[in-house]
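Dear colleagues,

For the upcoming journal club I promised to circulate an example of a predicted protein-ligand complex. I picked one with zinc ion because it came up in last month's discussion. The inputs are reproduced below in full, followed by the predicted structure.
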Amino acid sequence: MYYEIEVIIIFILGLLGLIVGSFSNVCIYRIPRNESIVFPASHCPKCSKAIRPFDNIPLLSYILLKGRCRHCKSKISIQYPLVEFLTGLIYLMIYLIYGLTIQTLIYIILSSALIIIAFIDLNHQIIPDVISLPGIVIGFILSFFVPYISFVNSALGIVVGGGIILIIGLGGSVIYKKEAMGGGDVKLSAMIGAFLGWRYIIISLFLGFFLGALIGIILIVTKIKKREDVIPFGPFIVLGSLITLLWGEKIISWYLGI
Ligand SMILES: [Zn+2]
């Protein structure tokens, strides 16, 4: 492909990622509050003043406003530009690996849904069924039409993904006498399995557990969190699955090579 076209595609996809990331912020704020994600237009959560389009440009407005509301000067969470940046970045990386394919299209939609889920779980310790349940169905149906995953692999992904978390959750609740992993994690894992298949969901969960344990230990040692604090697991499943979605084949060949 011509170099110029490549640059234009990268520019458009990066921009699209920033815009979708901006919309993801609306979803992250409103879905757990059961508010409409369409109406009303964006407003400051502190002073309720409507945010003008000029102040609602992804990344740029946050920098120009120095992270504060134009009206009441209250701090805007760093989470807003972070979600926009992450979404733009993941779109570009997916494109650079999978090119102009249907797989890229589906993976950028999936990654957006996963980023929304991860931040809702971080903020509220819930994983919304309105995303994960349709996600399982959509992932399975798509597997009949796309070339890169079979419906058998998708079905196995749902069973293996949901099953592993279910078994660990049940085991954990017997040992610790409290809910270690909720039903939300089971449905999230099943959804990722539906899109990525049984091999990738196993790698995703393994990475998720590893990163969760590692970061959990760091948070406790640095006294940012206490041992008894709840650290949601959903964001780590998402992180593991995004890494796997990008570099799954590399991870498998590395693992088989050692
Ligand atoms: Zn304000």
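Two points we might discuss: The chain has a mean pLDDT of 93. Residues 44, 46-47, 49, 69, 71-72, 74 surround zinc ion (CB under 6 Å).

See you all on Thursday,
B. R.
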